[in-house]
Structure formats: structure tokens, C-alpha cells
Amino acid sequence: MKTLIVTGGNIEKQFLLKTIKEREFETIIAVDNGLKALNEININPQHIVGDFDTIKSEILDKYKENKSIKIHEFNPIKDNTDTDIAIRLAIELKSDEITIIGAIGTRIDHVLGNIQVLKYALDSNIKCRIIDENNEIQLIDKTTIIKKKDITKKYISLIPLTEKVEHINLKGFKYELKNGTLTIGSSLGISNEISKEEAIIEFDNGILIMINSKD
């Protein structure tokens, strides 16, 4: 099942609508103020999650009247972010692919936290990525093959999520690497490009943040 999570960061509505039309999600989860963007493009989610400290009450009340939509309301004093809760819900719903829009915004603490909680999906062997018009972010913990025809943006950056990622081999990239190591505090993996029809990222252990960026 393909699930879309729409959370409360920066959202370009035409990009959101285009993504929904092209990818045919079986389930949509609105996270707090992410509901505002869905409301503006007249798309109903199946689930609404949050402490509802940012969404206007009149918008939320409209969806509370729809009995086919499940509302998951949480106390604002909680240990987990709303996006964290939404990812856990998507996993509980047996999603095999999760896409998140609105997880990138002006709150850098939330952006970093949203990247961190992608690990829940990774641990469950579920493909999960954060996307916007300029970026696509996901975590990888094993050899990954990227076909050039499948990416829409120019740059590939690899940043270690764990303290170090060892024995990295990059093949099919403009800047190849043989038996390299990426550690926290190094910028070695930033702004690479795929130079062949297929690129391979090989490594033995650790977790990489893989970012495909437009500019």
C-alpha cells in the first residue's frame, strides 16, 4: 500500500496535487497544519493526526463531520512529533511505501527530526522518503542501485546518519569512491552526480542519508 503523509512544513500546492494525481496513493494521512494544504486542493485524507496546535479549528471541524475520516488527536505535551506519530501510523496500516510532503520548512529542528524518524520505516524495511520540488530524502542501509532515468534531479549527496559508514564503493558517479569511509563531521559525500545509466552505492555497515537535489 502506498501512503502519503502531508505534514505542516512548506508545501507548494501544485506540487502536492501533481504528486497525488501521479502516484495514486491508497491512503493519505494529514498531519496537523498539513490538513490546510489538502483542504485548499479539495483532497480528503483517510486519517488526520496531531495535537492540532496549528490547524485552524474551523478547518478541523469540517473534517470531524466526515465519519469516513479517522481523527487521531494527541495531547500537545508529548514525547513524539506529529510527523513521528504519522510515520508510525503508516507502518501500523501496513504501508509498503511512504511519501512525506511538508517535512521541509523553516524550522530546521523539525527538518532534522523528520529525517531522523525515517529510521522507523527503514527498520521495518519500508521505502520512505521526504520530497518537495527541489529535494528527495531517504535513508539507506544496504547496497543501493540508482537508475539515471528514475531520478529527476541533478545532485546526489550522501551524509552519514550513523557515526561512520565504512567500505563505501561508489560506481557510475562523476566522483567515484573505492573502499571509502564517511564520518559525521565530513563533507566528502556532498554534491555528486550520476555519470552513467546506472549508479551503485555499496557499503558494509551504517546508515546513509541520501539526498537527490535539484540545485
Describe the model:
- Helix content is 24%, strand content 33%.
- The protein is an alpha/beta fold and 215 residues long.
- The chain has a ten-stranded mixed β-sheet with strand order 4-3-2-1-5-6-7-14-9-12, with helices on both faces.
- The chain is elongated and about 60 Å long.
Could you tell me the strand content as a percent range? 25-35%
Low-confidence stretches: none
The main β sheet shows up as: 10 strands, mixed
Mean pLDDT over the residues: 92
Find the CATH topology of the largest domain. Rossmann fold
Which outline best applies?
elongated
Number of domains: 2
Based on secondary structure, the structural category is alpha/beta
**Radius of gyration from the CA trace?**
18 Å
Topology as a string of helices (H) and strands (E): EHEHEHEHEHHEEEEEEEEE
**How far is the N terminus from the C terminus?**
31 Å
Strand order of the largest sheet: 4-3-2-1-5-6-7-14-9-12
What percent of the residues sit in helical stretches (DSSP H or I)?
A: 10-25%
Going by CATH, the homologous superfamily of the largest domain would be: Thiamin pyrophosphokinase, catalytic domain
Number of helices: 6
CATH architectural arrangement of the largest domain: 3-Layer(aba) Sandwich
CATH class of the largest domain: Alpha Beta
Number of strands: 14
Topology:
Elements: E1 2-6, H1 13-23, E2 27-31, H2 34-40, E3 47-50, H3 57-64, E4 70-73, H4 82-92, E5 97-101, H5 108-116, H6 118-123, E6 127-131, E7 135-140, E8 144-147, E9 155-160, E10 164-171, E11 177-183, E12 192-193, E13 198-202, E14 208-213
Parallel strand pairs: 1-2, 1-5, 2-3, 3-4, 5-6
Antiparallel strand pairs: 6-7, 7-14, 8-13, 9-12, 9-14, 10-11, 10-13
